[in-house]
C-alpha cells in the first residue's frame, strides 16, 4: 500500500469514533415503564424462564443471532504472532462482515492465554453466551487441538474460519479454475506453500473433492514436506510425499496449481514461469500475496490468478464463507458445522459464479461487465445472492445430515439481511 493508503486505513479505523463496531438497542428505552421491563423488575421474568429451560435463552436473549469471534492473535492474517490485542482490528473486521453480509451480531474476544489448554478453558466457560463460536487467526498446530476439543465440549457450532472458511472458498474457486484451465482435478499437480491452519484444511478439502494426495507437494519454512523428515507434526505428516524434491524451485517445475497460504512475495516470477501451461495461482496470503498479480500477469498471460484481497479480481477469501455458513447454521440451530454443510457451501459458491452477474455487483466493483472466466472464478463478496444461496444450502445440509435442532426456516430464501428475523 502507498503511504496515502496506509494513512487512509488508519484514519478509517480512528475516525469519527474509534473502531468499526458498536452495540444497538432493539427495544424501547424511553420511559420508566420501558426500563421496568428491560431491567429491574421485568428482567427477572426471562431469568426465571431460562433457569428452568436453557433453550429459552434463544427466545428471550440475543444468543441465537450472536457469534463470538475469538482469537489469541497467534497468526494474524499473514502478519504472524503479534498477540491478542493487535488482532482486535481483524476481529472487529470479521464482526463487520458478519453484520453487513449476514445480519449476524458478534462480539470479538481476544484471549491472552498462556497455553492452548488455558485458551480452551476460557472459551468453554463463556461459550453458552453465544449462538456460535468463530475461532480466528490461531496458529497451527495448536489450532487443530483447540478446535477439536471445543467442538467436543460445546453444544453450539465451533468453527475455525482460517481452516474451514478458507478451505470452502478455495475449493469452490479451484473447481471453477480447473474447469477453465481444462485440467482434471484428479490429475492436477499442486504445490501448497504453507503447512499451517489454512493450508492443511484447504488440502484436506481438495482431496475430498477429488485431488490426489500424492499429487500435492506441501512446503513449510524448511521446504518440501517429505517422508524423510523427522520434524513433522501429525498434521504435516499427512501430506508427506516420498519424493526427492526439496525446495519450492524443485516442486514448482511443471506444477498445474500453486496455492499460497504462507507469507508475502515467496513465489518468484522465475518460479511461476516454470509451471505447466494455464497455471492456476491462488496467492492467498493477506495482506500481501505470495506473488503480486501484476508480476504474475506480466510473467505469463495464461495464468488464472486469485488473491485474498478485495482490490484484485478473484478474491479467494473466507469472507465468502463464514457469514453465510453461520447464518445457515444459526437459523436451524445446528449443533455443529459438519462436512455435509461445508460441501454444500462449496457447491453453492462454485455454482453462483456461473450465474449472470447482477448490476448491483457491477456497480459495487465499478465494472461494465463480468462473466464466468479467468477473471471471475468465484462470486464477489458484495453479491447479495450469497445470503440466499449459501445460507440456504448450509441450512438444508444441516437438516438433511441430522445436526439441525430446528426445521428448515420458513422465511428462507433470504432476500436481504432485513429478513433475518423472519418478520
Ligand atoms: N485468503 C484467505 O481467506 C486466507 C488466507 N490466509 C493466509 O494464509 C497464511 C497462513 O495463515 P494460517 O494458516 O492461519 O497461519 P499458520 O501460522 O497456521 O500457518 C502459517 C504457515 O505458513 C508457513 N510459512 C510461513 N512463512 C513461510 C515461508 N517463508 N516459506 C514457507 N512456508 C512459510 C508456516 O511454516 P512453518 O510451519 O514452517 O512455520 C506455516 O506452515 C496467512 O498469510 C493468511 O493471511 C489464512 C486464512 C484465510
Ligand atoms: C482472511 C483471513 O482470515 C486471514 O488472512 O487470516
Ligand atoms: Mg484469519
UniProtKB/TrEMBL annotation:
- One Pfam match, given by its short name, reads Malic_M
Q: Does the keyword Ubl conjugation apply?
A: no
* Residue intervals of the Malic enzyme N-terminal domain: 18-151
- UniProt EC number: 1.1.1.40
* Residue intervals of the Malic enzyme NAD-binding domain: 163-399
Which residues are listed for a divalent metal cation binding in this entry? 136-137, 162
Residues engaged in binding (S)-malate: 286, 317
What reaction is this protein's catalytic activity?
Answer: (S)-malate + NADP(+) = pyruvate + CO2 + NADPH; oxaloacetate + H(+) = pyruvate + CO2
One function term, GO molecular function aspect: metal ion binding
- List required co-factors: Mn(2+); Mg(2+)
- List the active-site residues: 39 (proton donor), 94 (proton acceptor)
Q: Which UniProt keywords apply?
A: Metal-binding, Oxidoreductase
What the record notes about the co-factor is: Divalent metal cations. Prefers magnesium or manganese.
Family, similarity comment: Belongs to the malic enzymes family.
Entry protein name: NADP-dependent malic enzyme
Gene source species = Marinospirillum celere
Amino acid at each position: 500500500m502507498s503511504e496515502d493508503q496506509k494513512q487512509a486505513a488508519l484514519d478509517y479505523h480512528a475516525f469519527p469514533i474509534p473502531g468499526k463496531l458498536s452495540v444497538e438497542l432493539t427495544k424501547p428505552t424511553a420511559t420508566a415503564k420501558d426500563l421496568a421491563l428491560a431491567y429491574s423488575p421485568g428482567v427477572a421474568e426471562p431469568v426465571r424462564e431460562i433457569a428452568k429451560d436453557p433453550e429459552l435463552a434463544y427466545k428471550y436473549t440475543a444468543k441465537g443471532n450472536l457469534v463470538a469471534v475469538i482469537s489469541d492473535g497467534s497468526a494474524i492474517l499473514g502478519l504472524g504472532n503479534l498477540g491478542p490485542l493487535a488482532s482486535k482490528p481483524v476481529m472487529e473486521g470479521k464482526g463487520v462482515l458478519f453484520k453487513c453480509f449476514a445480519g449476524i451480531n458478534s462480539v470479538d474476544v481476544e484471549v491472552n492465554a498462556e497455553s492452548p489448554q488455558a485458551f480452551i478453558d476460557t472459551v468453554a466457560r463463556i461459550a453458552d453466551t453465544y449462538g456460535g463460536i468463530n475461532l480466528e487467526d490461531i496458529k497451527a498446530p495448536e489450532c487443530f487441538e483447540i478446535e477439536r476439543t471445543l467442538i467436543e465440549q460445546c453444544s453450539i457450532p465451533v468453527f475455525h474460519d482460517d481452516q474451514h472458511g478458507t478451505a470452502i472458498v478455495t475449493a469452490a474457486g479451484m473447481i471453477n479454475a480447473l474447469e477453465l484451465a481444462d485440467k482434471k482435478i484428479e490429475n492436477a499437480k499442486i504445490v501448497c506453500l504453507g503447512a499451517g491452519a489454512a493450508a492443511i484444511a484447504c488440502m484436506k478439502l481438495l482431496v475430498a473433492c477429488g485431488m490426489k494426495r500424492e499429487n500435492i507437494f506441501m512446503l513449510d519454512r524448511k521446504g518440501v514436506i517429505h517422508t524423510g523428515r523427522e520434524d513433522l507434526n501429525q498434521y504435516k505428516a499427512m501430506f508427506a510425499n516420498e519424493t526427492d524434491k526439496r525446495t519450492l524451485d524443485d516442486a514448482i517445475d511443471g506444477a498445474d496449481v500453486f496455492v499460497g497460504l504462507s507469507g508475502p512475495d515467496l513465489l518468484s516470477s522465475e518460479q511461476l514461469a516454470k509451471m505447466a501451461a494455464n497455471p492456476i495461482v491462488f496467492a492467498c496470503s493477506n495482506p500481501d500475496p505470495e506473488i503480486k498479480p501484476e508480476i504474475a500477469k506480466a510473467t505469463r498471460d495464461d495464468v488464472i490468478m486469485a488473491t485474498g484481497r478485495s482490490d484484485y479480481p478473484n478474491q479467494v477469501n473466507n469472507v465468502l464463507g463464514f457469514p453465510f455458513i453461520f447464518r445457515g447454521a444459526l437459523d436451524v440451530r445446528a449443533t455443529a458445522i459438519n462436512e455435509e454443510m461445508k460441501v454444500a457451501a462449496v457447491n453453492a459458491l462454485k455454482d453462483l459464479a456461473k450465474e449472470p452477474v447482477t448490476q448491483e455487483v457491477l456497480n459495487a466493483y465499478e465494472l461494465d461487465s463480468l462473466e464466468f472466466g479467468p477473471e471471475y472464478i468465484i462470486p464477489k463478496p458484495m453479491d447479495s445472492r450469497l445470503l440466499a444461496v449459501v445460507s440456504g444450502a448450509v441450512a438444508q445440509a444441516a437438516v438433511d445430515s441430522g445436526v439441525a435442532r430446528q426445521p428448515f426456516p420458513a422465511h428462507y430464501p433470504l432476500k436481504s439481511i432485513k429478513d433475518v428475523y423472519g418478520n
